[in-house]
Amino acid sequence: MSRSARVIWDDELISYDFGPGHPLAPVRVELTMALARELGVLDKVEVAGCAPATDAELAMVHDPGYVEAVKRVSASGRPDLGAGLGTVDNPAFKGVHEASALIAGASLAAARTVWEGAAEHAVNVAGGLHHAMSATASGFCVYNDPALAIAWLLEQGAGRIAYVDVDVHHGDGVQAAFYDDPRVLTISLHESPRTLFPGTGFPQETGAEGSAVNVALPAGCGDAGWLRAFHAVVPPLLREFAPEILVTQHGCDSHALDPLANLMLSLDGQRSAYAALHRLAHETAGGRWVATGGGGYELVRVVPRAWTHLIAELAGHPVDPGAPTPPEWRRFVRERTGETPPLTMTDGRDAEFSDISGGYDPADPIDRAIMATRQAVFPLHGLDPMP
């Protein structure tokens, strides 16, 4: 399906490291790139480097005073609680500015790649730090690289950008950056804010002219319910909005094994979502697709396989889910982490779902979540909220 795809990568991207014991361990992206390399996925894409985001680029989303505060923490390693650095979620560390700016620069490079036509699709698996706000770090995120990519695209003249966030946590920082901007449609599918950080992302948060869309799913939702919700909300809105470019965030912490959340997706359900977004990029955005990683805290069994599937999907050469993981990668996992690696690229699930067009059940909590979103935003887009 793809004419070309580019992976933005620099080995220094793993320097975004909050220290031992922190859930956002950079080994997850290290293992992802190693798996993609051993499976031959990287042979099907162009791998390109990146430069750190400049202060002027960071200022497209972040207050200059905040950037200066991050730099001071970066030089000293001392906390600045006013900037949100020095908390349990966002520990202060020397080099935090440089590490964060490089991740931001990688997502800017991905956006530039697609906007200028150097490749049809581009991905930064180290990115997706969607909780960072304009003047504070939040939720493991210092600079909001997806928001920066979108802001840069707007500065280049993009008139309509769609952002779809499938992380288990609400994409609150990106929503906040563009909440009153009808040029940007933000869609977030996440666990209900009643049971999970950051406590936002209710269906009633609709932004300017319905530009913010939130699907808040109940804890325990698995593949069938999640995919039913995705297909009931995302395709109709993207078709109506007709973006010039699609930006997506692929946190894989919706997986049943993730230790920080309560959804129950399988790797196969997540892979189905990647394929659906690929199709929608071509159908609604002329094939222009910028993707990032995101959350994901099962570092060995989930993140590397999920994002290797994502890279392969962008490349237009999906990995056979039944394929074995390469022996060399398994050895690397054991040496690097001491953990037992997965043997195949699948969880063995079918990831089937029933489409809501066949009718909805008002007694079903997933269908109630779907209809709450459709009723809140579909009329604002001229769409009928009823199936």
Structure commentary:
This protein has 387 residues and is of the alpha/beta class. The chain has a single domain, classed as Histone deacetylase domain (Arginase, Chain A). An eight-stranded parallel sheet has the order 2-1-3-8-7-4-5-6, sandwiched between helices. Helix 1 crosses helix 9, helix 1 runs antiparallel to helix 10 and helix 4 crosses helix 5. The longest helix has 20 residues. The two termini are 30 Å apart. The model has no long low-confidence stretch (mean pLDDT 98).
Task: Summarize it.
The chain is an alpha/beta fold and 387 residues long.
CATH superfamily: Histone deacetylase domain
Q: Largest sheet, described in full?
A: 8 strands, parallel
Strand arrangement in the largest pleated sheet: 2-1-3-8-7-4-5-6
Question: If you compute it from the alpha carbons, what radius of gyration comes out, rounded to the nearest whole angstrom?
Answer: 19 Å
Q: Judging from the principal axes of the Cα atoms, what is the shape?
A: globular
Q: Please, how many helices?
A: 11
The CATH class: Alpha Beta
The low-pLDDT segments are none
Shape-level CATH architecture = 3-Layer(aba) Sandwich
